[in-house]
TrEMBL record:
Gene Ontology molecular function: any one: zinc ion binding
Source organism phylogeny: Eukaryota, Metazoa, Chordata, Craniata, Vertebrata
One of the record's GO cellular component terms: cytoplasm
This protein's UniProt keywords: Metal-binding, Zinc, Zinc-finger
Protein name: Ring finger protein 123
Span list, region Disordered: 695-721
Amino acid sequence: MASKGAGMSFSRKSYGLTSDTEKSRVTGIVHEKLLNDYLHRVFSSPDHAPTAATSRKPLNFQNLPEHLDQLLQVDSEEEESQGQVEGRLGPSTVVLDHTGGFEGLLLVDDDLLGVIGHSNFGTIRSTTCVYKGKWLYEVLISSQGLMQIGWCTINCRFNQEEGVGDTHNSYAYDGNRVRKWNVTTTNYGKAWAAGDIVSCLIDLDDGTLSFCLNGMSLGTAFENLSRGPGMAYFPAISLSFKESVAFNFGSRPLRYPVAGYRPLQDPPRADLVQAQRLLGYFRAVLSVELDPAEGRLVEKESSEWQLQGQPTVLLTLAHIFHRFAPLLRKVYLVESVLTSFLLGVMEAGTPTQAQAVVRQVLDLLWLFMEDYEVHDCLKQLMMSLLRLYRFSPIVPDLSLQTHYLRLTIAILRHEKSRKFLLSNVLFDVLRSAVFFHIKSPLRVEEAGLQELIPTTWWPHRSGREGKDSKEVQDETAEERLRRRAYERGCQRLKKRIEVVEELQVQILKLLLNNKDDNGGEASRYIFLTKFRKFLQENANGRGNIPLLCPPEYMVCFLHRLISALRYYWDEYKASNPRTSFSEEAYVPPQVFYNGKVDYFDQQRLGGLLSHLRKTLKDELASKANILIDPLELQAATMDDLDEDEEPSPAAAQRPMQALAIGGALPLPRPSWLSSPTLGRANRFLSTAAVSLMTPRRPLSTSEKVKVRTLSAEQRTREDSN
């Protein structure tokens, strides 16, 4: 019976959790004794107390819902209301007070936890205050500029010049200037950097206030805080223009909890207990296998589990996900339970086994959960991974960043999940370019760089006046040892960075997959559609400000994208030998001069095109190999250029091996290398084209090309395939 059921295909609608008395006779369900043993093995009691086989209640799919309800009951202490707690005043869900608790112009995220300064020195506080006990909250530093983070009372008055810490009864830590503030200021703590996490702790029993940076205590900052009737402290921040942070009052698990201190917002204890128990039941399904032929259970490693379509297993999973699905929509539970579970899967077994388990878990999510539930779950899962990657401390081997990227790759390998994330999350909700940036360490000792590169070395000697000395001096034995030690350290660091870069390129290779259309849109088409909009918004700065990409992220993102495009280019060449190698490609400089590039109303650096052509005529001819037609110098505006001008003889004689991305290619090329794919991207942001701007060899006189108008390529579906 089981072997027959194992080959059946089960649609989601096949699973009804209410069953009649004939359920046990359904084809594929194992016999009564084995089913009873299996369900007792999977749904053991929370305390794991051993139960005699003769005394335990027989289990089947008729009484399993009642048994599950009993197992998921939580203690009254865990069910206590999340409302008023002694020592805290305000809503149980703590957010930033965007209605009245602010000064200046600020941009607050939709979740009311992220804030961007949009004036000289804006200030905002939370909706909840504390007057007794020990409390903490965390601030995720997105930019390392001028900010003062801490606590204030409701009577504090701020303006565009005075913020948190500049008035009585307000206290702040400033990691930009490495100081603490309470009317006066003194040195305190360490410098922070983008990607750090600041923990703000207040002890109203002893009247002290302290801070931590990435979990490391910076010591007591203030003592003898004012306490008593009418004195309560709000989390608060003052930040200058374009500085940004995100608060975690407890809506997500604290990255660095401190013993004895309580987050301002209580975790969903009852839901958390239920989610952890349901995850335990799910783990049990992965670690036990039915053997109907022998009538026994077989223990196995969860990394070896395979979804074989056995009705008994599928019905068991249906009961689990019936209760698990609503919980997996909540931010706290996704990060605390699901993300932790998947990260554990990636650590167990081989990479191939781990990716197989993640793929099957995602299959089960799509099978047993409603679409809107899966969408919320995947969105929260990717947001959790992005935060973990961005705000992880730098360690010498970059193991934390590598770990999070590998799980991201495993999720994106799942086709249905990848297409949903591309269409709705990666560019619309997240600043996904963060995945392609490697955070630079600000504190050398914490990043372990002193052990990795124990010595420094300079390749040039400098004279007394600071200029390089022209005299070549022999290298001493000591200098030789320093140089070799320095070079070895740099090579070790380079190899570790290359591991992370390769994982980042793998992500883009998945997003550029063109073979998964399956009657719909391929991942590459969805990516290019979103990527064009992403470039437009970042080129003119008119997009959603919280999602705009900082320059350092953009350069890394486009560098990885070019690497992925080179991979697909060379893959195409393997089957089309007449096509040139990607190494021979470059962006012709004329696309930045011919006046037909849409810069989205951005002002051109250096002046109008006519002025640039007149003043830079000689430089263009000598350095960029571009000859300026005297007739084009008469064009008063860029619109006067002749779009139908024929190529010059010099251009026609250009060697067949010289490729120009964005222009006409003389040799066959992949259709995906048309302008919307790479050429137009490089036109929008010339930064991305730096590595491709210069040809691999100098051009001869006969190869110099004339500046002419490139016909605008039309965006079509075929361009993206």
